[in-house]
Amino acid sequence: MKSALMPRVKELGIVAVLIVLVIAFSVMSPNFLDPTNILNIARQIATLGIVAVGFSFVLITGGIDLSVGYQISLNVVVTGMLMAQFGVPWFLAVLLALVLGTLVGLVNGIIITFTGVAPLIVTLSMMMILNGLSYLISKGLPIFGFPAEFSMLGQGAILGIPVSVYVLIAVWIIGLFILNKTYIGRYFYAIGNNVEAARLSGVNTRRTIILVYALCGFFTSIGAVLLLSRLNSAQSATGAGFEFSVLTACVLGGISVMGGRGSLFGAFVGVMIVGVLDNGLVLLNVSEYVQLVIKGCILLAAVIYDAMSKKSRGRRKQIGGVPLAPVAVPA
User: Fold this and answer.
1) pLDDT, tens digit, for every residue of 265-312?
2) pLDDT tens, 170-185?
3) Is the dihedral of CA 207, 244, 56, 105 positive or negative?
4) Pair 276, 25: CB distance under 8 Å
5) Are 53 and 175 in contact (CB under 8 A)?
6) Which of 14, 154, 247, 288 could form a disulfide with 229, with the two C-beta atoms 3.0–4.6 Å apart?
7) What are the residues whose beta carbons fall under 8 Å from the beta carbon of 100, sequence distance 6 or more?
């Protein structure tokens, strides 16, 4: 019973952290709770929140994708160029952006599963490749001049609520359904707990891991499209460092970097914490370099806590909180 309550206690803890941050910034900056600023925070976290869905899937399976930042860079450059320089209709450019993102994730998953190279190394290498490609395509120059209809995705609002927030909600509903209502979601947890035990239990681990990286690329491309629409300019450095922000949000939200644990609710709260922190520090005119130090300390503390929690708790094999029957692993 005690172990079953622990995830809930942790989720309540991160909600409490979010509330404390909101109260603190409200006191230190009178503009923080201004409706205009609240809507600004909502637009800012839309991309982070959408990417966090796919990134959470990857972390739950015990992997990591450090290339998401430059997946965004390549995506915005290609999408922007298609619209601004080749006259491709915006809806078709968006569709091609989703295909591109999914393909990049698919390549990551295939390399990881068929070579056995650690996800950290594969995605770090992919990050460098995508960084170089984005600069080669754009030649380091900004791309702009997009259709007004496209700008509505990231800048428009319906009933006073940003369009990007509606997209964020839709993506999270889909993510929650995949993780909690399908056997594929259960496979994610099984692989994160013990990939060999999952394989012996009948899970096609290769196909599932490829799928999870493809989904990560797909969701990342959605976030990239919204970011491009909000900024109205495509630059090669657009996604630089984004992988750090999404990793911080997910780990803060209780997604274990060691796999097998975490929920999208926690990740969403983590996204909100990062969004509030970013916005509040800017309003207080805190130096960008000081912000990096603060975020780095937060990520380090969250990872240390995760590691210590695992050590004290021991390694219980579970899928979404439901214990698995022991699986005999041959010597």
Assistant:
1) 999 999 999 999 999 999 999 998 898 899 889 888 888 887 787 666
2) 999 999 999 999 999 9
3) negative
4) yes
5) yes
6) 154
7) 74, 75, 78, 221
To which residue do tokens 């984004």 refer?
242
Give the separation between CA 35 and CA 33, rounded to whole angstroms.
Answer: 6
Tokens of 135: 């600069």
Compute the distance between CA of residue 92 and CA of residue 78 in angstroms, rounded to an integer: 12
**Rounded to an integer, what distance in angstroms lies between the CA atom of residue 158 and that of residue 166?**
9
Q: Which of 225, 223, 44 is nearest to 146 (CA)?
A: 225
Which residue has tokens 């708790």? 313
Phi, psi at 35, each rounded to 5°: -50, -35
Token pair of 194 as six digits: 């013990």
The Cα 238–Cα 244 span in angstroms is 14
Helix 68-84 × helix 119-138 angle, to 10°: 20
- Kindly report the three-state secondary structure assignment for every residue of the chain: CHHHHHHHHHHHHHHHHHHHHHHHHHHHCCCCCCHHHHHHHHHHHHHHHHHHHHHHHHHHCCCCCCCHHHHHHHHHHHHHHHHHCCCCCHHHHHHHHHHHHHHHHHHHHHHHHHHCCCHHHHHHHHHHHHHHHHHHHHCCCCECCCCHHHHHHHHCEECCEEHHHHHHHHHHHHHHHHHHHCHHHHHHHHHHHCHHHHHHCCCCHHHHHHHHHHHHHHHHHHHHHHHHHHHCCECCCCCCCHHHHHHHHHHHCCCCCCCCCCCHHHHHHHHHHHHHHHHHHHHCCCCHHHHHHHHHHHHHHHHHHHHHHHHHHCCCCEECCEECCCCCCCC
pTM over 0.70: yes
Query: For residues 222 and 100, what is the distance between their CA atoms, to the nearest angstrom?
Result: 11
